[in-house]
Design goal:
heterodimer, A: about 850 residues, alpha/beta, N-terminal domain of TfIIb, Rossmann fold, Dimethylsulfoxide Reductase, domain 2, 4 domains, seven-stranded mixed β-sheet, six-stranded antiparallel β-sheet, 27 helices, globular, B: about 150 residues, mainly alpha, Ferritin, about 80% helix, about 0% strand, iron-sulfur (chain A), metal ion binding (chain A), nitrate assimilation (chain A)
Chain lengths: ~850, ~150
C-alpha cells in the first residue's frame, strides 16, 4: 500500500525507449470494504482531469465504494492519479448533492419538482422566443458532460432555438488548443498520441505543469526518466514545478512573454539549419513570413524580454533541433496567457520546420484542461458547427441541414459564434434574457469575479443552472436542476489524444436527479422543436441513439466515429478516432503522410490574423489554396496589455494544485484531497519575501485594479517579481458568498481574451501585495509539488510535509498483465 | 505631379484613423477586445505614417492646389451602448476604407513610376490596412444582430 497523497505519482516502473509502458493497477476502496465485498466493477473512464484514464467503479449495495485503473487501457495501463483515486467516487457520493429541482420564490430558492421547474423554464423560454427571438437565449456549457449530452445540447441551440450564443467553459481551458490546430493544420484534431512518450528522445513542456494537471501522463514520463535512455526535458514555466525539477533546461519566462521566447526558439532552428527543407517545401506554406517575423529575436533579445538566460534559449533550441524524436505538450501557461494562439501555433511551427509530426515519438499534444472538452469542441457546444464543420462554408452548413432535416435559415452561421465572455457581456447589457449554465461554475472560474457576480445578479436574466451541487453560481439561479453525475448515467467521452471511452451507469442518481441528457431531451420535447417533417427534433430514447446520430454527423470528417459502437468500447481499451472503414481499430497519430485538412472545401476554419483575430475569409483562403499543406502562422510579439508599474509592481499568475480540480466541487468533498490542500495561499519568491518582509504563513493582501484576495504566504520557487495564486478556492464551503473575506484567485484577473481563440487571459495581471498580519502557522500550501517551500524559507515556522495518512493508502499491483498495445497497424508497420 | 497630394492625403488619413481608433478604444473600455485591438491597430497606423515620411520628403510638398474636401474628419467623441458601438465601428470602417483605397492609388502610381522604394512601403503597409478592415467588419457583423434586434 502506498500513501498516494504523499506519493502523488506512486511507484516507478522504469522502461526504455520503444518498450511498452509496464502495467500498474491502482486501486482504492472505501474504509471497511474488502475486495471480496465488491459486488460489481463497472467500466468507465476518469473525469478528474483531461487525461482520460480507463477506470472501473466498485459497486456495493447500490453505491460507489471505490475505483481501480483498467489494466488493459492504452491511456493509463492501470494507473490512476490522486484525484481519480479519491475524488471520482467520493466527489459524487455525498450528502450535499442536489436531489430535487429548486425554484426561486420571493427571492429565495426553494425545493420544487421537475414539472414545476421545467414549466417555468419552458414558459420563459417560449415567451422570449416569441417576443424577442433566438438571440435572447444563451447557453454556457461545460467540459464535464458526455458526448451525447453535448450533441443534444448543440442541436437544441443550433436547430431548435437557432442562437449563436453558445459556448462552453472549454473557452477557459482548451479553446486555444482548438484554435492553434485550426490555424496550423486546418482543423481541430490532436496530431500526437500518448504513446509518443514511450518513443521520444526529447520532451518540451510549454506552460504545461503536467506533473500536477495530468498526473498519470507524468507517471509515464517519470518512468521513462527512470529508464536507461531517459528523454531530455525542457520546461517553460515561471514556477519551479516538478517538471522544472526534472528538466535539463528550465526557462522560467516572465508571465506574458511566451511568444518572444517561441520566436527565439524558431529563429535558432533557422539560423542553425535545424530544419527539414524537403518537408517544408512539400507539406507547408508561408515559411518566409515566419522567418521574417522571428528575425529580430536573437537569444539576447529573448533574454531581455522574457527574463531568461540567452544560453538557456540556445540549449533548449539545440535540444529541439538535434534530437531525433521530439514530443511537445502545451497547456494553460500558453493558453491562458497573452498571444495564446500565436504562441501555441509557434509550437506547431517548431515541429513543422523539422517535419517532426506523424511519426513515432514525434508528436504534438495541444492539451485539454477537462475530461470531455474534446467532445464539447467536436459537437459544437462551444458554438462551432458540429463535426468540425466550417461556419463560413455553405456546404458544411447544408450538411447539417440535411442531417437534422431543418430549415437552413435556423442554423446560425452569419457571424462567428458568440464566445463565453461576450455572452456574459450581452447578459450584462440585458439583451440575453435567458441563460442556461450546465455543469460549470463561472462565479469562481471566470475573470474579474465582482463583475461576474453582478452579471449573474442582473434582474433581466432568467438563469437556469444544472449541477450536482448548489455551487456559487447555482445560488444566483432562478431554477436549479439536479443533475445525475458520472457513474450515474451512461455515455461516451474523448480525451486529449482522441481516445473514446464508454462510461457505464453504475448506480442510481440520488433523489430525483436526472442526467443532463434527459433534461435536454425533456426541454426540446416541451418546447415542441421539430424537424421539417414534423417529427421531434430529438427523437432519441437513450444515449446510444444519440451516439448513432453523432456517428452520422462525423462521417467523412476528421473526427470520424463511424467505426465505433458502444459494444466495441466495452471490455478492453478505449479507441482513438478517426475510426472508420479505413481505420477499423482507430488511429494512433494524425498526419503520417504530411497531408493536412487544409483543403478549402474540407477545412474547419479559413484562419485568422493572429495579432488581431481578423478572419482570413473564404476568398483570400481559396486564393492561396493550401490544398493539404500545413500553414506557418505567426504574429509579431506584443507585450501584455497589463504589465507591472509603480502602483502594481508584480506580475500575477494563477493555476492549479495537484489535489484539486477546478472549483473543488468534487475534490473539496474528498477528505484525502481536501486535507492535502484545504485552503488558499499565495506564492512569492524568497528574494521578494525578504524585500517585503514577509515570511511563510504571514497573511497578505494581493490586489489588482479589479479586486483583492487575502491569504497566507508560501515562499516558493516562483520566479522573482511574480505572484501565484491557486484558482480552486471559492466560497461554497465558506457560506456561499465572499462575505468580506476574498480568497478566489479570479477576484484579481483581467477581463481580456486572446483575439483568435477568445480564451480569457487568466495568467497575466499586475498586482501589489501588502502584509496584513504575522502568521501563526505555516500556509496550507502542499509541500509535494510546485508550491513546495524553498529551503531558505520558513524562518522557524515549521512547514509539515503533505501526507495523506491511513485514509490515503492505495493498492498498487505492478505488472499483473502484459502492457496494452495501441492496436492500430500503423504502429507496427 | 499630383502624387504628393495623395501621399499627403494618405499620411493625414493614417493619422486621423489612428486618433479615431484611440478615441474608440478609450470610449469603449467595457468591450475589452475593442479596447485593446483598437490600440494595436492605432500603433500600426503610426508605423504606416513613419514609413511614409521619407516619401513625403522625396516627392515634396503637395502645393496649394489640392482638391477641395480632400481630408475627412475623425471621431471627436464616442457614442455609448450597443448601437453606439456599432456606429463608432462603422465610422472607423469608413476611415479605414479611405486609407485602404488610398494605398491602392499610391500603389498604382508606384507601379507607373516603377518606384521600388515606394512600392516596397506599400507592400509593407497595405496588407495591415486590409486586415484592419476585416477585423472591423467581423466585429460589426458579430455585434449587429444583437444591437439591431435586441438592444434597449
Amino acid at each position: 500500500m502506498v500513501d498516494r497523497i504523499a506519493e502523488i505519482w506512486g511507484t516507478r516502473t522504469p522502461y526504455a525507449r520503444d518498450e511498452l509502458w509496464p502495467t500498474r493497477v491502482d486501486q482504492v476502496l472505501a474504509e471497511g470494504v474488502d475486495e471480496s465485498d465488491v459486488e460489481r466493477w463497472v467500466q468507465s473512464a476518469c473525469v478528474l482531469c483531461s487525461n482520460g484514464c480507463g477506470i472501473d467503479i466498485a459497486v456495493k449495495d447500490g453505491t460507489m465504494v471505490g475505483v481501480r485503473g483498467r489494466s488493459l487501457d492504452i491511456v493509463n495501463h492501470g494507473r490512476l492519479g490522486p484525484k481519480g483515486l479519491f475524488a471520482s467516487w467520493q466527489g459524487v457520493s455525498n450528502e450535499d448533492r442536489l436531489t430535487v429541482p429548486l425554484v426561486r420564490e420571493n427571492g429565495v430558492l426553494v425545493e420544487s419538482d421537475w414539472e414545476t421547474a421545467m414549466q417555468r423554464i419552458v414558459t420563459r423560454s417560449r415567451n422570449l422566443l416569441d417576443d424577442k427571438g433566438p438571440l435572447s437565449h444563451g447557453f454556457y456549457t461545460s467540459g464535464q458532460l458526455f458526448l451525447e449530452e453535448y450533441y443534444a445540447q448543440a442541436i437544441v441551440a443550433k436547430a431548435g432555438i437557432g442562437t449563436p450564443h453558445m459556448d462552453g467553459n472549454t473557452r477557459l481551458c482548451t479553446a486555444t488548443a482548438a484554435a492553434a490546430m485550426k490555424e496550423s493544420f486546418g482543423s481541430d484534431g490532436q496530431p500526437g498520441s500518448y504513446v509518443d512518450i514511450d518513443e521520444c528522445d526529447a520532451m518540451f513542456l510549454f506552460g504545461h505543469n503536467m506533473a500536477e494537471s495530468q498526473t498519470v501522463l507524468w507517471m509515464r514520463v517519470l518512468d521513462r526518466i527512470a529508464g536507461p535512455d531517459k528523454p531530455r526535458i525542457v520546461c517553460v514555466d515561471p514556477r519551479f514545478t516538478e517538471v522544472a525539477r526534472q528538466a535539463e533546461v528550465h526557462l522560467p519566462v516572465r508571465p506574458g512573454t511566451n511568444l518572444a521566447l517561441m520566436h527565439g526558439l524558431v529563429r535558432e532552428l533557422f539560423i542553425n539549419g535545424w530544419i527539414d527543407q524537403e518537408y517544408i517545401d512539400q507539406h507547408t506554406m508561408n515559411v518566409e513570413q515566419l522567418r521574417a517575423t522571428v528575425e529580430p529575436w536573437t537569444p539576447e533579445a529573448v533574454a531581455e524580454t522574457c527574463g531568461v538566460e540567452a544560453d538557456d534559449v540556445r540549449r533548449a533550441a539545440e535540444i529541439f533541433g538535434t534530437s531525433e524524436r521530439v514530443l511537445s505538450t502545451v497547456l494553460q501557461g500558453f493558453y491562458q496567457s497573452s498571444q495564446a494562439t500565436a504562441s501555441s501555433c509557434a509550437v506547431n511551427n517548431l515541429h513543422l520546420l523539422r517535419g517532426l509530426l506523424g511519426k513515432p515519438g514525434c508528436g504534438i499534444l495541444q492539451m485539454n484542461g477537462q475530461p470531455t472538452a474534446q467532445n464539447n469542441r467536436e459537437c459544437g457546444a462551444d458554438g462551432d458547427l458540429s463535426g468540425f464543420r466550417n461556419w463560413e462554408n455553405p456546404e458544411h452548413v447544408q450538411q447539417l441541414v440535411d442531417l437534422w432535416n431543418v430549415d437552413a435559415s435556423i442554423i446560425p452561421h452569419w457571424a462567428p459564434p458568440t464566445h463565453a465572455m461576450q455572452i456574459f457581456r450581452y447578459v450584462e447589457q440585458g439583451s440575453i434574457e435567458f441563460l442556461w449554465i450546465s455543469a460549470t461554475n463561472p462565479a469562481v472560474s471566470m475573470p474579474q469575479l465582482s463583475r461576474i457576480r453582478d452579471i449573474l445578479s442582473v434582474d433581466s436574466v432568467f438563469l437556469v443552472v444544472q449541477d450536482l451541487y448548489l455551487t456559487e453560481t447555482a445560488q444566483y439561479a432562478d431554477v436549479v436542476l439536479p443533475a445525475a453525475a458520472w457513474g450515474e448515467k451512461t455515455g461516451t467521452f474523448t480525451n486529449v489524444n482522441r481516445t473514446v471511452h464508454l462510461s457505464e451507469k453504475a448506480v442510481e442518481p440520488p433523489g430525483e436527479a436526472r442526467s443532463d441528457f434527459d433534461t435536454f431531451l425533456d426541454y426540446s420535447r416541451r418546447m415542441g422543436f421539430t424537424r421539417l417533417d414534423g417529427t421531434p427534433l430529438l427523437d432519441w430514447t437513450g444515449p446510444e441513439d444519440a451516439f448513432a446520430a453523432w456517428k452520422e454527423c462525423t462521417r467523412g470528417r476528421p473526427c470520424d466515429y463511424t467505426g465505433i459502437t458502444y459494444d466495441k468500447l466495452r471490455g478492453g481499451s478505449g479507441v482513438q478516432w478517426p475510426c472508420n472503414e479505413e481505420h477499423p481499430d482507430g488511429t494512433v497519430r494524425l498526419y503520417r503522410d504530411g497531408v493536412f485538412p487544409t483543403n478549402p472545401g474540407y477545412c474547419e476554419s479559413y484562419g485568422h490574423d493572429l495579432l488581431t483575430g481578423a478572419p482570413v475569409g473564404p476568398e483570400s483562403y481559396q486564393a492561396v489554396n493550401p490544398a493539404g499543406r500545413a500553414i506557418f502562422k505567426t504574429a509579431p510579439y506584443h507585450p501584455a496589455h497589463e504589465t507591472p508599474d509603480d502602483d502594481y509592481p508584480f506580475r500575477y499568475t494563477t493555476g492549479r494544485t495537484v489535489y484539486h480540480l477546478h472549483t473543488r466541487t468534487k475534490t473539496g468533498r474528498s477528505p484525502q484531497l481536501n486535507g492535502a490542500a484545504p485552503d488558499a495561499w499565495v506564492e512569492i519568491s524568497a528574494r521578494d519575501a525578504e524585500a517585503y518582509e514577509v515570511a511563510e504563513g504571514d497573511i497578505v493582501r494581493v490586489e489588482s485594479r479589479r479586486g483583492h484576495l487575502t491569504a497566507p504566504v508560501r515562499v516558493s520557487g516562483i520566479r522573482d517579481g511574480s505572484i501565484f495564486a491557486p484558482f480552486h478556492y471559492g466560497y461554497w464551503d465558506e457560506g456561499g458568498v465572499p462575505g468580506g473575506n476574498y480568497r478566489a484567485a479570479n477576484e484579481l484577473t483581467i477581463t481580456e481574451w486572446d483575439p483568435v481563440s477568445k480564451q480569457p487571459i487568466l495568467k497575466n495581471a499586475a498586482v501589489r501585495i501588502t502584509k496584513i498580519a504575522d502568521g501563526t502557522a505555516a500556509s496550507p500550501a502542499p509541500t509535494t509539488t510546485a508550491s513546495r517551500p524553498v529551503s531558505t524559507a520558513g524562518r522557524g515556522r515549521g512547514v509539515l510535509p503533505t501526507v495523506g495518512g491511513p485514509a490515503a493508502q492505495a493498492k498498487e499491483t505492478i505488472a499483473p498483465v502484459a502492457p496494452a498495445m495501441v492496436v492500430a497497424e500503423e504502429e507496427h508497420s | 505631379m499630383k502624387l504628393p497630394v495623395y501621399l499627403s492625403l494618405l499620411h493625414t488619413s493614417e493619422g486621423t484613423l489612428a486618433a479615431s481608433l484611440r478615441q474608440v478604444s478609450e470610449g469603449h473600455g467595457h468591450e475589452p477586445d475593442v479596447h485593446f485591438i483598437c490600440q494595436i491597430l492605432a500603433a500600426q497606423c503610426d508605423v504606416h505614417q513613419e514609413a511614409l515620411a521619407p516619401m513625403l520628403e522625396r516627392f515634396g510638398e503637395p502645393g496649394d492646389d489640392e482638391p477641395e474636401r480632400l481630408h475627412v474628419d475623425g471621431l471627436s467623441t464616442t457614442r455609448s451602448g450597443p448601437i453606439g458601438l456599432l456606429r463608432d465601428l462603422q465610422d472607423l470602417y469608413l476611415l479605414a476604407s479611405l486609407v485602404d483605397i488610398t494605398w491602392a492609388m499610391i500603389k498604382q502610381a508606384a507601379q507607373g513610376l516603377r518606384d521600388a522604394e515606394l512600392l516596397s512601403i506599400v507592400t509593407d503597409c497595405d496588407g495591415e490596412t486590409a486586415i484592419q478592415l476585416r477585423w472591423l467588419q467581423t466585429r460589426m457583423k458579430q455585434a449587429a444582430p444583437q444591437a439591431l434586434i435586441l438592444a434597449g
